[in-house]
Amino acid sequence: MACAVLLLAQTLSAATVGRYGVFERSFTARSVSSNPYRDLAAEAVLVGLDGKATSPVPLFWDGGSTWKLRFSPNQTGLWKWTVRSADAGLNNQSGVFECVTSPLKGGLQPMVGAPHHFQRQNGERIWFLGDTAWALLSDNEPKLHHRAAVEQYLKNRAGQGFTAVHLSLLSETAWGNAGGAPWTDLAAEQINPLYWQEADQRIAFANAQGLTVGLTLAWARKRTTAGELYAWGRFPSLEARLRYARYIAARYSAYNVYFLVSGEWHGEVGTRKSTQAAIRAEFVAIGDALKAADPHGRMIGIHPMDDEGSTREFNDTAWMSFGDYQQNYSALHQRVLDSRRFNKPVVNGEYAYFLRDRGGHGVVDKPHSYTVDDIRHATWDIVMGGAYVVTGFGSTYMGGNRHPTPFLPDDPKNEPWVEQIGLVKTFFTSLDWWKLAPHDELLLCPTPRSADRSGLVEVNGRQQERVQAPATTYWCLAEPGREYVIYTRGLKAPLTVELGEAPTRLQATQFDPRSGQRTELSPATVRHEFQFLPPDEQDWLLVLEQTRSPNHEPRHS
Question: In angstroms, rounded to a whole number, what is the distance separating the alpha carbons of residues 395 and 90?
């Protein structure tokens, strides 16, 4: 009877948290230290109604004598928590909270049964559509980049159908924010909690808009400029890097996030005078520490810089959640296919920044970014390999840095690409896209595919390479026998789709990727093949679907 009364009392006093929300609790430490971040540690164990304990959940220092616990419950009911620490003020602190049903959908995961794709924790399938906002946590008044502008940007992107943004926790610009710099002294591991409290607000705001946030822990040290004050190579030791990774897991894994261990990790190879293998081993260790400190199992990747722009080499680690997270500008389609063998989602995270003019010379200087046609062609070459994109816009991707204008969340010149990248999502989510796989071998055409286009243009007296996707190409995604998606570009001759032996009745629909207009072509009973002649040499899509009886069950769950 006494136990029942105690449990009832705990229930009545428990905090209430929505499923997939964030439970947060603050504590006061008693230890006196000049650097609590470095010198003290604490962790909690949580137990749900099923009686299973979580892996230890690290607490994080948040200034003064304050420590915090953050946790996102994945099941409803009562949760009990207990803190362990060498500090007397933290050790053996305990309590309960109640997790209740909520409209939240949870974080990003590989899709069950279709691991090249994504779902939310509640099982809802999601089309991953990302945008680049490297400086999102930073402020720069001359560039008009501050919290109000960031919130406007996030509301815009959510309203435009984006489902993710990725950013750098330690911006390559070395900007701080309203709370100051992220570190008061990186060499001494003196972290500034006020910076991170401001960052909390922006990440939470993005989540509230329904956006998953990709958190890049730090950039590689590619140069020795002030712009890399907080790069990985400036941390005083490997242990300092691992400590920071655990801190980020403690502070942010309860949010709707995924992690990128580093931005452009290959940059460290040239600046640290070590072998690539040794540098790679350090990043593997950082990823291991991040994974071990995260009880929520958030997806983890890493961002590359080498000639092939791939992170496939990390698929032998315990933490790599992506088949690839590319920075890649050439052979876009083929390099997606090369990365699908790991049976994980593939993302090209950096392939174009629409209309970026870094030098302010009136000349777009990023591959595939020159016109809306260029960026659209590159994007369809990627997604037709069964991958996803993080796109970008010159006037927003770096907070207005590397662009002649300030940060412009409502920049009207971005509207054509905002609309057309939205049509990519609209197109695929009208289909059972997760059932489709690359089948380019099913397409026959007398016109061969062409190669990437490249050449030199003069920018401010210097020659600069210009890279564009192939002028002529055609790709196929299919669930053979039921559904076929064909993308063409630059074709004058008919294209033949090989369908196999069994006759079937197909509905053919033509889709215009510029306007979103759909045109139904006549249904036909076909055997072996279907021929398609695009209306012109622009890019077009053809969808062939097995016709369905009126009583057929709906396709989408």
Answer: 46
Q: What is the mean pLDDT of residues 323-336?
A: 98
Domains in the chain: how many in total?
3
Kindly report whether the global pTM for this prediction surpasses the value 0.85: yes
The answer for 112, left when phi > 0, alpha when psi is -120 to 50, beta otherwise, is beta
CA distance readout (Å), 378 to 190, 301, 327, 331, 332: 43, 22, 13, 10, 7
CATH number at residue 472: 2.60.40
DSSP state of 278: H
- Domain, as residue range, for 525: 441-546
Here the CATH number for the domain that contains residue 201 is 3.20.20.80
Per-residue model confidence (pLDDT) at position 503: 61
Tell me the C-alpha distance between 540 and 258, whole Å. 34
Phi first, then psi, for residue 356 (nearest 5°) are -70, 130
- Measured CA distances, 472 to 379, 392, 445, 484 (Å): 15, 24, 11, 20
- Inter-axis angle of helices 276-293 and 238-252, to 10 degrees? 30
Axis-axis angle for helices 372-383, 332-339 (nearest 10) = 20
Tell me the C-alpha distance between 22 and 19, whole Å. 8
**Residues 400, 146: Cα–Cα separation, whole Å:** 11
User: Tokens standing for 415?
Assistant: 């509207």
**Average pLDDT along the chain:** 92
Place 3 in a pLDDT band, splitting at 50, 70 and 90. Answer: very low
H helices present in 209-274, as ranges: 238-252, 267-271
Location of structure tokens 């990023």: 366
- Cβ-proximal residues to 18 (8 Å cutoff; 6+ apart), any chain: 99, 100, 101, 102, 103, 104
> Angle of helix 147-159 relative to helix 193-208, nearest 10 degrees?
20
Helix H, strand E, coil C: the string for 370-403 is: CCHHHHHHHHHHHHCCCCEEEECECCCCCCCCCC
State how far the Cα of 93 lies from the Cα of 73, in Å rounded to an integer: 19
Token representation of residue 406: 């300030």
The answer to whether the beta carbons of residues 311 and 302 sit under 8 Å apart is yes
Burial class (CB in 10 A: 0-12, 13-18, 19+), 32: exposed
Domain finish residue from 396, 429, 462? 429
